[in-house]
């Protein structure tokens, strides 16, 4: 039950972020959004803790600001994985174009996802 609620909360977060930031696009299909939310949950559950442990000295050195870069990188990884699976999820034109626009959109998306996810987390129980 917790996994289903978490997936729905993540899907709501991505829908709001896509509305706020048009550079992040999930293709406007509910099934696509739910699958992207599941993949995001797997990435956040498996890869993010490992990356955070290895980057802990840099995160401490930057007083936590390196966390935003980690979130942006994981958002780009999510776009790459969803493209491999055949789903529509783009961040600033990535994939296929990884450029300054994609990196900027990923950074802004990471910030907005953190804010919206916190608000959704307050509404949706654990």
Task: Provide keyphrases for this structure.
126 residues, mainly alpha, 75% helix, globular
Structural features, described:
The protein has five helices and two strands; from the N terminus they run αβαααβα. It has 126 residues and is mainly α. Helix 1 (2-20) crosses helix 5 (100-123) and helix 4 (66-85) crosses helix 5. The protein has one domain.
Number of helices: 5
Largest sheet: 2 strands, antiparallel
Q: Name the poorly predicted regions.
A: none
Q: How do the helices and strands follow one another from N- to C-terminus?
A: HEHHHEH
Calculate Rg over CA atoms.
14 Å
Helix content class: over 70%
- N- and C-termini, Cα separation: 9 Å
Structural class: mainly alpha
Give average pLDDT, whole number. Answer: 91
What's the domain count? 1
Strand order of the largest sheet: 1-2
What is the β-strand count? 2
What shape does the CA trace take?
A: globular
What is this entry, summarized?
With 126 residues, the chain is mainly alpha-helical.
């Amino acid at each position: 039950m917790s996994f289903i609620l978490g997936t729905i909360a993540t899907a709501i977060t991505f829908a709001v972020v896509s509305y706020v930031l048009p550079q992040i696009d999930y293709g406007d299909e509910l099934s696509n959004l739910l699958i992207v939310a599941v993949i995001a949950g797997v990435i956040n559950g498996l890869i993010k803790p490992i990356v955070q442990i290895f980057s802990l000295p840099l995160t401490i050195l930057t007083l936590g600001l390196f966390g935003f870069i980690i979130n942006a990188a994981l958002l780009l990884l999510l776009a790459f994985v969803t493209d491999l699976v055949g789903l529509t999820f783009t961040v600033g034109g990535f994939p296929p174009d990884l450029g300054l626009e994609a990196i900027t959109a990923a950074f802004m998306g990471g910030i907005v996802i953190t804010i919206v996810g916190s608000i959704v987390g307050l509404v949706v129980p654990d």
